[in-house]
Amino acid sequence: MKHLLIAKLWRIASLAFVLGFAVPAHPAEGHPHVWVTIMTEVLFAPDGTATGVRHAWTFDDMYSAYAVQGLAGSKDGPNRDDLAPVAKENIESIQEAHYFTFATAGKREVEFGEARDFYFEYDRKNAVLTLHFVLPFKSPVRTKELHVDIYDPDYFIEFAFAEKNPVALVGAPSRACRLSVVRPEDITANKQLPEEFFRNLAESGNWGAHFANKITVRCL
């Protein structure tokens, strides 16, 4: 079997096949395969321009357990230095997927530069990994309305905002700025959906956008 990097799991048709053990039951019968809880900060410069976002992504315990296999560490688990190669590998790989982060200013697409200040943090109590990184805009953005969507276009990874305080503004200008957060509708909440449902939905193109976590910042 060809070795598959953990950083590219969203391309895998079945996480259970790769890891060799059962995936917990999920209403979508195979979609998604990795679950990530997200907290995001929208960053501003002193001149009032938006400069990018800072993400903290906490992976599910199964993915985290697989990621730390074979890593040295103390009784509290691997530290930031132990996890540095894994963080680098993941960041380089998710760059191919535009870091699963998409922004527009008004109706204009905003391009991101390369991620920086990235590191993994291990929570021994909950046995989960959190990936921290800053994703800067290629150029600072001055706009009255900024939108940031976070999702996997293929929906192999399910992103979900943290329950409490999932988004914050950092350094926002003194003029009034209003933040709104929209969570994706859980279309699997009330019924079991067969794999055929997702195959048909995929034919429509960028269908993972249906599950986007949406941030909107409006400033006067």
List keywords for this structure.
disordered N terminus; 11 strands; 16% helix; six-stranded mixed beta sheet; 36% strand; five-stranded antiparallel beta sheet; 220 residues; 4 helices; alpha+beta
Can you describe what's shown?
This protein has 220 residues and is α+β, with helices and mostly antiparallel strands. It has one domain (6-219). 16% of the residues lie in helices and 36% in strands. The chain has four helices and eleven strands; from the N terminus they run H-E-E-H-H-E-E-E-E-E-E-E-E-H-E. The protein has helices spanning 15-19, 61-67, 80-94, 195-202; strands spanning 34-44, 50-59, 101-105, 108-110, 116-123, 128-141, 145-150, 157-161, 167-170, 177-182, 213-219. The strands form two sheets. Strands 1, 2, 5, 6, 8 and 9 form a six-stranded mixed β-sheet that branches. A five-stranded antiparallel β-sheet has the order 4-3-7-11-10, with no helix packed on it. A hairpin with a 5-residue loop joins strand 1 and strand 2 (50-59). 28% of the residues are buried.
Topology as H/E string?
HEEHHEEEEEEEEHE
Can you give the mean pLDDT? 81
Helical segment tally?
A: 4
Rg measurement, Å: 18 Å
pLDDT < 50 runs, ≥5 residues: 1-30
Bulk shape: globular
Number of strands: 11
| Quaternary | single chain
Overall structural class, as computed from helix and strand content, comes to: alpha+beta
Query: Terminal Cα separation, in Å?
Result: 56 Å
Beta strand %: 35-45%
The biggest beta sheet reads: 6 strands, mixed
What's the number of domains?
1
Fraction of residues in H or I helices: 10-25%
